[in-house]
Amino acid sequence: MKEPQRLRRPVPRRTRPNRSILGALSQSDGLPPIADPVDGPEAGGMHPLGPGFGDAAEADFAADPLSDSAREYIDRNVRSASDLIDGQIRQGEETAKSLGRSAFSSLNGAASDLPALLTGLVRAYSDIGTAWVDIVGALAQKAETAVPGTVNGSRNAADMPMIGLSVVAGQPVEASLELFRPAQRLTVQPLVATPPGNAADIREVSFEPDGSGAGGRIRIVVPGGQAVGMYHGLLLADPEGTPAGAVTLKILTLPEDERGRS
Amino acid sequence: MAEQRVKKVAIIGGGCAAVAAAFELTRPERNGEFEVTIYQLGWRLGGKGASGRDAETGRIEEHGLHLWMGFYENAFRLMRDCYRELDRPEGSPIRTWRDAFKPDNFVGVTERRGADQWDNWAAYFPPAAGAPGDPLTGRNPFSVKGYLARCALLLRTLISSVQDSYPGSVEPGARDELAFALQTLVASAAGSARGDQKEFAAKTLKYGQLAASALVLEALGAVRWAVESTAPAAGETLVALLEKLSAVARRQLETLVAKNDELRRVWEIADVVLAIMRGIIRDRLLFTSQGFEAIDEYDWREWLRRHGASEASLDSGFIRGSYDLLFAYEDGDIGKPRLAAGQALRGAMRMFFTYRGALFWKMQAGMGDIVFAPIYEVLRRRGVTFEFFHKLENLALSPDGSHVAGLDMSVQAKTRGGKPYEPLVDVKGLPCWPSRPLHDQVINGAALKKAGWNPEAHWEDHSVARKTLQVGEDFDFVVLGVGLGAVADVCGELIAAEPAWQTMVQEVKSVATQAFQVWLNKPVEELGWDLPPINISGYVEPFDTWADMQQLIRLEDWKTDPKAIAYFCSVLSDADIESSDDKTDAAKRTSRHVRDSAIRFLDRDVAHFWPKAVNADGFRWELLETGNKSRSAKSGKARFETQFWTANINPTDRYVLSLPGSLKHRISPLDDRFDNLTIAGDWTDCGHQAGCVEAAVMSGLLAATALSDYPRLSDIIGYDHP
Ligand SMILES: Cc1cc2nc3c(=O)[nH]c(=O)nc-3n(C[C@H](O)[C@H](O)[C@H](O)COP(=O)(O)OP(=O)(O)OC[C@H]3O[C@@H](n4cnc5c(N)ncnc54)[C@H](O)[C@@H]3O)c2cc1C
Predict the structure, then answer these.
(1) How many domains does the structure of chain A reveal?
(2) Are the beta carbons of B219 and A3 separated by less than 8 Å?
(3) How does residue B159 score in pLDDT terms, banded at 50, 70 and 90?
(4) Nearest atom of ligand 1 to the alpha carbon of B14
(5) Is A12 part of any domain?
(6) Predicted pLDDT at A213
């Protein structure tokens, strides 16, 4: 008699919380509304978060004893700070959405699970968008390093280039990029599995400088069937050839059809 | 295509995490895709959240005091769904989730004032709109930037509160949501929680010369940086300005606050908030892809200190309370407070800035009655099988180490006639868990009862049968939902096969806890307590936390109702856990140790809360309500024997710590190293790395996701929190 087939868990989309700002993009607004007649809103208060994200700065401080001009000054400044970051997040969302749209139109027929597809794409965007985080990070760093005597003050962040990361893979991956020091042009070494073993190197790696010459994009293509595991690739500054950073890529699990499931 | 066969899931354990996983996997929308069996040692669900009813008085006996916080979005959603499905008939006790949980707006902290002097402070947090578990509206509520803005606002409110000292500056009528909320916090910090703001203004009038304008000017500069930090051309930075601000503020305030508690509290909060803001910016938490994890190597106080918080602020009630709340003492040693800074920051931000309804919610009966009985009933209706008295002894791996091949179980008792064990008892119409097994349902019950059999005790090895469940036959998937302390015991093969598991069991640590409850025949107000009913932390060890549980009186079943119920709890030092070859005897001795500490605490320390409960000889033992047993005959200290205390030393019951440097070693329920196993528990890498109900529920949801890709990660609120 044939043994019943043993079941395996489905492929995880990822295994870690996405704690970067971009994680925010994948957080849903909650499950479908709960229709519970006894659940009136708690009377007499506001959501401690304020009426909505970014609204905190716009809240009306009628009870504020500060002079009008002082209040305006603070509000204006807080607001423009919020707007700036908000704008960037919005931009990210737009990109995610448009990515979603284009992928959707090319995947005609597979529309049954659009929300899941979009979530996946947002996720893909956030992988690619690590670069974006780095850019903003570099800006923050720049401001910080201007202060004498603060931590890591030695780095001249003004030189930090903006490096993007894009990964093309047929299976779930988590990618991150770390720059040890500024470099305008890079050579990317093949990604090697750690610990080194039987897994083949990932060789289709390249750096595409952007027009300004102040940064660019690292592109990694993961071959189909690449073994699950952790891979690292060194970034060398051109033309010196000295290490300037590293790319880390985690390949999660082979897609279902390659695992021989029923 | 062949019809999909039902997937059999064995869930080991019945704590918050395990039942959350079961609840998700058996939702009606899944059309019976999963067939779930829960294997639970002993006679009840609940684990660290278990409670039981005393057979005679119906009194509630808790594993430990449990409060729910207003940010427990996932846990409340679970309970709300559960009560809706339970659909108790009109007129039943605890019919809806609203009956089950009541908002509590006061948070108490005890503050040390000199060697032997303590102050109580009831901080009032105004109700916030909505209730936990409501759908979230608006965009991402958890961004670091959002928190930073809120910190800035809080700071600004703190500073303007100092300006309240100018007459006529704040009109209590002019309320405005967040500002009002924060102002109330400040007012409350100033000890006027029950008084009015005018009175507060009058009190602080004489400090009108606080040179508040100087502070405000500095604050303006600080806020300006918020722009500059993201606009690279800027010259000065927020860090520099914040530093200046606190230097100026400190100089001006420290001299003044030395003699004024109100201002001192305001200042301590401001000082900590300033340190948080500086830290967020300096450590680049705004943008790092690790979120707050980036600082999990540091201890919370150490991190705040690095960013300039003063020693006085670090010893303030709120900071000490944050350690007490999480039992954050390594080895249970009060001298070793340790709490990972990133998780502490995440917890603090979520607690204060994202609560809904109230900061705390109090259960209106035992946690077993409120949480686990309803979940049990709903799961039963959905067809979940419960195997009580089943203790997992070993998780056996397949020869190739890829999956769990077998589950070795010890059967602790069998029911008469092989009928399913019916675990609930009725107390005043409410289905509850008893505090002892229902002996009459099990074979040989009378003898077991006589022998004092306790199948929850780790060292209890009474076993009537062994069985091994086989993969492919008895189960397809396993959800391991035992407490962290049990993992080393039952997962030897996994630990040997996988280094990550080995590191995890070494690095992620837990601590024993102790608790006692007393029933009094006088209300606490008559004993000299003059603040609102309260949960108060930060007091002298060994029992640093007291909660007033008077709301439970009407649910218990006494002949003569007590007038007050008080719960106390804290860590139990590993050094105080007795050991010997006779484990049962050692456990008894540890229990006596807890009893003696409780007696000492009542004799010596409780006077701080209830001055009239003590006289020259110590605690007035006649205040203890005993019920109408032979118990009442006892007098003096011996009367304490009639009350309830517990030493939570079973490995699975040990509270899970969030030690600095340890969180990265946790394993996620999503990790698929073993391809038919997932884990659930507050010890896993579940997004919120603290020992609490919310973390446990999140891990249970993740375990369900691991087996079925549902719920989606984006629907687990806070999983992707920075
Ligand atoms: C004293 C105390 C006070 C607390 N106060 C609060 C609070 O106020 N607010 C809050 O949010 N959190 C609080 N907590 C934390 C909270 O109780 C836990 O985070 C939560 O209950 C953990 O749930 P869990 O499912 O992860 O684990 P557990 O509750 O430990 O569940 C484990 C389950 O596995 C079972 N089990 C163990 N070994 C075996 C075996 N070999 N075979 C079969 N079954 C087994 C256990 O019996 C139990 O059912 C407190 C904890 C303690 C100890």
Answers:
(1) 2
(2) no
(3) low
(4) 49
(5) no
(6) 63
Q: Which atom of ligand 1 is nearest to the CA of B683?
A: 26
CB contact under 8 A, B713 and A14: yes
On chain B, the residues whose CB falls within 8 A of the CB of A25 are 140
Residue B691 has what pLDDT?
A: 97
How large a percentage of chain B has pLDDT more than 90?
Answer: 62
Task: List all residues whose CB is within 6 A of at least one atom of ligand 1.
Answer: B 12-18, 39-41, 47-49, 64-67, 391-392, 481-483, 486, 490, 513, 515, 569, 648, 652, 655, 681-682, 691-693, 696
Residues A121 and A236 in one domain: yes
- Which runs of E-coded beta strand occur in B139-256? none
Mean pLDDT confidence for B102-116: 76
CA of B15 to the centre of ligand 1 (A): 5
Asked whether residue A133 is domain-assigned, the answer is yes
Cα B692 to ligand 1 centre (Å): 9
pLDDT of residue B318: 80
pLDDT at B489 over 60: yes
Q: Say if residue B707's pLDDT is above 70.
A: yes
Nearest chain A residue to B147, by CA: A49
Helix (H) or strand (E) holding B362: strand B360-363
Boundary-marking domain end, from A77, A109, A141: A109
Residues A154 and A227 in one domain: yes
A120 and A227 housed in the same domain: yes
Going from the Cα of B387 to the center of ligand 1, the distance in angstroms, rounded, reads 18
Q: What does the pLDDT read at residue B96? A: 97
pLDDT at position B74: 96
Enumerate residues 6+ apart whose C-beta is below 8 A from A244: A179, A180, A181, A182, A183, A186, A235, A236, A237
Domain with CATH 3.50.50.60 in chain B: 7-55+68-99+363-508+657-715
DSSP A15-68: SS---STTHHHH--S-SSPP--TT-PPPTT---TT-SSTT-GGG---TT--S-H
Residue A94 lies in a domain: yes
Task: Determine the 3-state secondary structure of B103 from DSSP.
Answer: strand
Give the number of other CB atoms < 10 A from CB of residue B470. Answer: 12
Q: Give the pLDDT confidence of B185-198 residue by residue, as tens digits.
A: 344 334 332 334 34
Residues A122 and A249 in one domain: yes
Residue B87 binned pLDDT confidence (cut-offs 50, 70, 90): very high
Angstrom distance (rounded) from CA A27 to CA B404: 33
Helix, strand or coil, per DSSP, at residue A157: helix
Q: State whether A84 and A140 are in the same domain.
A: no
Whether residue A84 lies inside any domain: the answer is yes
Q: Is A104 within 8 Å of A111 (Cβ atoms)?
A: yes
Give the end of a domain, one of A62, A86, A109: A109
Ranges of H-type helices in B42-190: 73-86, 97-100, 144-163, 177-189
Q: What is the CATH number of domain B7-55+68-99+363-508+657-715?
A: 3.50.50.60
Asked if this assembly's ipTM is beyond 0.85, the reply is no
CB proximity A229 to B under 8 Å:
no
Least confident range from A198-202, B151-155, B318-322: namely: B151-155
Cβ atoms within 10 A of the Cβ of B167, count?
Answer: 10
pLDDT category, B320, cuts 50, 70, 90?
A: confident
H-helix or E-strand containing B246?
helix B238-257
> Are both A78 and A95 inside the same structural domain?
yes
**Could you read off the pLDDT of B210-253 as tens digits, one per residue?**
333 333 333 434 444 443 344 333 334 455 555 655 555 555 55
The whole-model pTM stands at 0.76
Task: For residue A137, give its domain range.
Answer: 114-259
Residues A103 and A120 in one domain: no
Measured between CA atoms, the residue of chain A closest to residue B166 is A65
Q: How many CB atoms lie within 10 A of CB A31?
A: 16
Among candidates B140, B179, B354 on the partner chain, residue whose Cβ is nearest the Cβ of A59: B179
Residues 6+ apart with CB under 8 A from B160: A64, A65, A66, B170, B183, B216
Domain check: are A43 and A92 in the same one?
yes
